[in-house]
Design brief:
It is an enzyme of class 2 (transferase). This protein is α+β, with helices and mostly antiparallel strands. The protein is built from 5 helices and 7 strands, in the order ααβαββαββαββ. Strands 2-4-5-7-6 form a 5-stranded mixed sheet, covered by helices on one side. The protein has a two-stranded antiparallel ribbon with strand order 1-3. The termini are far apart. The protein binds adenosine-5'-diphosphate.
Length: about 260
């Protein structure tokens, strides 16, 4: 009797362990599939800036021979923008990789948000072909905070990129930053296509893209907002979104000041 009971217990424990192992393997497989899809997409996407820079450098060589300063300057600017973009994407690949095992390790420094936001806006303006109209008129001249500047730059870059990508032409963006109860509150509003209400809860999920409309004409992996949310939450902050179809979207981030 007791021996039978003991065997049964052992069997149950063994089955339990087996199920646990199966679940773990399945989870790891899912992570591997996600990673593979991500790397496939990314590899394709990384080729674009490389071929653009290649073409720009070839053009540069021609215009150096002709001593055409204006065109040289133009192609240098394009190369620089594309290299920055490439650098940004490589960083994101590395960050996602880190993310599977640990969380992103923040390296904080103290900096002024106002010139920081201004420089992010400038990058967005240079990097896009569209006519971008940005309204940024902060109530204060300085707003010092402590955060991971590089990651925050990517966060802002992602949100501004989206505002541009999911708007027509011209693009109208308004940005606001202020201090509120120990938090830095950053608000990015666009007048683009908006997000269907039923999809809003999923836009921060990895690989999620709104499945309908013209989204497939717009390049993307569905990773930007997942990364944005991760960085914001690593800082002890929060991100919220308000959106109305055909009217536009507002992303609000609040991050502790220190
Ligand atoms: P990606 O832009 O690469 O597709 P994101 O994670 O940045 O990925 O965004 C997820 C999805 O959320 C987008 O595919 C798009 O459908 C929607 N979205 C994000 N930002 C905006 C925005 N400002 N306006 C409208 N839709 C947006």
């Amino acid at each position: 009797g007791a021996q039978f009971f003991f065997s049964l217990l052992l069997l149950t424990a063994l089955i339990g362990t087996f199920i646990y192992l199966l679940k773990t393997i399945k989870k790891q497989n899912q992570a591997a599939v996600l990673r593979k899809a991500f790397v496939n997409n990314m590899t394709h996407e990384l080729k674009t800036p490389v071929s653009t820079v290649m073409a720009a450098v070839e053009a540069l060589q021609r215009f150096v021979a002709k001593d055409d300063k204006e065109r040289m300057h133009n192609y240098l600017e394009i190369s620089k923008t594309e290299l920055e973009h490439l650098n940004d994407m490589i960083e994101r690949v590395l960050e996602l990789d880190v993310d599977e095992t640990h969380r992103i390790r923040l390296v904080k420094s103290t900096f002024d948000m106002i010139p920081f936001v201004r420089s992010c806006l400038e990058v967005t303006r240079i990097a896009t072909q569209k006519n971008v109209q940005i309204l940024f008129d902060p109530a204060v001249e300085h707003l010092v905070m402590s955060a991971d500047e590089a990651h925050l730059k990517n966060v802002l870059g992602n949100l501004l990129d989206n505002a541009v990508k999911y708007s027509g032409d011209p693009v109208q963006i308004s940005v606001d930053v202020k201090e509120q109860a120990g938090y830095i509150v950053l608000r990015i509003a666009d007048k683009g296509k908006g997000i269907p209400a039923e999809h809003i809860p999923r836009i921060f999920d990895v690989f999620f893209r709104v499945p309908e409309g013209t989204v497939h004409e717009v390049k993307g992996f569905g990773l930007g907002l997942a990364y944005v949310k991760h960085v914001v939450e690593q800082h002890g902050g929060r991100i919220r979104v308000n959106s109305e179809m055909g009217k536009g979207s507002i992303f609000t981030i609040s991050i502790p000041k220190t």
